[in-house]
Amino acid sequence: MRVILLGPPGGGKGTQGELIEKKYGFPKISTGDLLRREVQEKTTLGEMAKAEMNQGELVNDDIVIEMIKHKIFQPDCKRGYILDGFPRNVGQARRLEEIEEKRQEIVIDIHLSEQTLIQRLSERRICSSCGAIYNLLARNPRKEGTCDFCGSKLIQREDDVPEVIKERLKVYHEQTEALIDYYSRKKVYFRIDGEGKIETISKNIYSILDREIAKSRVMEAAR
Ligand code: AMP
Q1: Is the CB of 110 under 6 A from ligand 1?
Q2: For residue range 166-200, what is the model confidence (pLDDT) as tens digits?
Q3: Catalytically active residues, by annotation
Q4: Is residue 138 within 8 Å of residue 28, measured between CB atoms?
């Protein structure tokens, strides 16, 4: 099983990905988190990706594909995994299928109005160490400015500022939105309303995943 979380930046992919990971035990792979770590550690790859990330543009496909390849063949991904922020365009989706052809796919698109997205991105804070996600209004840490999980400082992402948010949404519409049609044709696409409470959204996601997992078990047994 490969769960692909689609949807614009700020739509809640990271938060919902964490919850799916906890419930189903599939590891969440976020290309954004992986890239931010590379930038933080000042690796060659991080240096290559930094400019695009700070401007809200997409990083070169080859770089993210290599990172994904490295992750999805690890033993913890054998049963399944969750992709957050990948693929970001049709080329990446095709390459993912070439790399791992047979894996069953479920695509969950968390849909939100542009106004809510901009508000959420401006209120988002992340842990500078473990990457856990918070929101100043909806998902506050227990102690202000401090991560509940590892106690590190919470920061605002450099790309969660108005000019870069605008560019990221533009990139989403121009490149990522095409995946809706791509996955709809493959009949693996499910759209979820992302405006409500975190728990309501996750319940809706779980019911899709439970149903699709059950279906795939029946199909496997019939083979
Ligand atoms: P995210 O945390 O998913 O919002 O990603 C932050 C930034 O990392 C994006 O604005 C891109 O610059 C880069 N990035 C993340 N995932 C990808 C991807 N699949 N392809 C290209 N660039 C990516």
Answers
A1: no
A2: 999 999 999 999 999 999 999 999 999 999 899 99
A3: 13, 88, 124, 157, 168
A4: no
Q: Which CATH number fits domain 2-26+79-113+169-222: 3.40.50.2300, 3.40.190.10, 3.40.50.300, 3.40.50.1820?
A: 3.40.50.300
For residue 13 and ligand 1, the question of a CB distance below 6 A is answered with no
| Residues in contact with 107: Cβ distance below 8 Å, sequence separation at least 6, in sequence order | 3, 4, 6, 179, 183, 188, 189, 190
- Model pLDDT for residues 58-111, shown as the tens digit of each residue: 999 999 999 999 999 999 999 999 999 999 999 999 999 999 998 999 999 999
User: Is ligand 1 within 6 A of the CB of residue 56?
Assistant: yes
Mean per-residue pLDDT for 150-160?
A: 95
